[in-house]
Amino acid sequence: MSGYIHLPFSLSVSGVGRLTLHQKNVILYIAGMMLYKIGFESFVGSITNLALGLWGGDERYGKLGTLHGLNLLFQCIGGILSAQVLRRLSGRQVLVLAVSTFAMVPSVLMVLDKCTGGSMKKADFDDENHGAWNTNMLFPLYCIAGVCYGMIELLKRIIPRDIVGGDVDKLRQIDSLVHIFYESAGTGAAFFSSYLLLRLGSNYGMIMTPLCFISAAILWWNIGSLVFEPDLGPDNTGFLQSIKNAFLDFGRSIWLGGKIIFSQRKFAWLPIGYSLALYAHRYLENGLVPVLAQGYFRQPAFAQILVGGSNFGELLGALLVLLTGNLLPTPIPWLRVDALLLCLVWILPFYKPDLEGNVVASSGMAWKFACIFIPISLGWAAGDVTMVAYIQSSVPADNVHDRISSLAAVMSFLYSIYIVIFAVMTPALGKYADDSNTDGTQKTIFNLGGVQFSIIAVLLLVSTLLPNGSWRFNPRLAAAGEIRIVNTDEEAGIKRGEAITEPILTEREI
Description:
Order of helices and strands: EEHHHHHHHHHHHHHEEHHEE
Number of helices: 15
Strand content: under 5%
Shape: globular
Mean pLDDT: 79
Structural class: mainly alpha
Low-confidence stretches: 1-16, 479-483, 492-510
């Protein structure tokens, strides 16, 4: 046959009518993820603008940091809940349930605003007319959104395995493919949401979020049958009791994950290499960008332009990993590149544009600033994709507890470290940004951006020197059955003169 489009893991598509069930599932899943990302970027941009606009004065950034911190904590709760719901419903059903519930949050906000006297903006740069609703309602609504987001994030790591199985190479390929399309949608959505925020206002700028979420739910509902068998436990435990057990197991998994990580040198660097790097990226978008948009450009909507640049960097990072394949078998080189690229943040405090309230000039400068975020997020995304694959492949497949696998324990510990850092640092740094407003935005960016990210960069570089054999720029993985970083070809089980085509990994279920 002719006219094939070749996709990773040997997907050959010559026409919709010739697609296999496997191929349809992949396409429906990725298309739904793109719609979800479009709606999500619009929603988060609107929430950030609402917070900056409604919480003025000297509590703006502190409250915004608390809002994001609470959202992250409830993401964790969402992940715990979804793990229990998945014992009773298939991944497809839980995904549809989560995104449909998520769609209700922006709908409630827009209806609430309209019912209390709010309205859309009449022109691009008119003042907004907000309704007379209690702005502290953002906290519970954003927490509900956090639960839904946490459920979807967990399912993003489960559905691909249900579709392609437990093969490491296929999982890495589909993860990279999803990341590429996901961030492509996120980049365009962030840029477009900036226009919607300017044109419709911070509340109604999220108008396309419910539409995108419901469309994604419809696509995911049509994913073909995946293998699923309800697991109610040996004693048919009730749902509430299973939820209680889930929280106890989560706490136990954190403890067991910490024991695994700090008992072996090859894992001891992960809390910095994974958790701290993830915090740096999230703070860049949720903490530093709002300060830049409000302080430099006097237009919170331009934060989405900067986020769009960051999303484009993530897209390039995932694409780079897909193209380089097995040339860099460990995340060590990518993490070092990430640390070096973080230093680009130093550009921000030393260049303050003199815009004098000119919205057009502010917009142009925001686009230039977005270019700074592209390489920064490129380094993080490449490191994150390879880091997750490395963790999945190197953590033993055995169970450390009756209901807890080693991989789940390690990931629970690493994600909990990230949550604690973000939940503590973001509100505290937001309060600092409020208190230092009188000193000027440049000094605030100097400390929040330059100083903080330099410390993180040094810690990341030092952490890459901890594993055995990691002093080499591009260390390899050890022979099959012994997943560790090594320094020489002989240690890797490779004969001199033999071409290195791929890392030697033990195939195991993830």
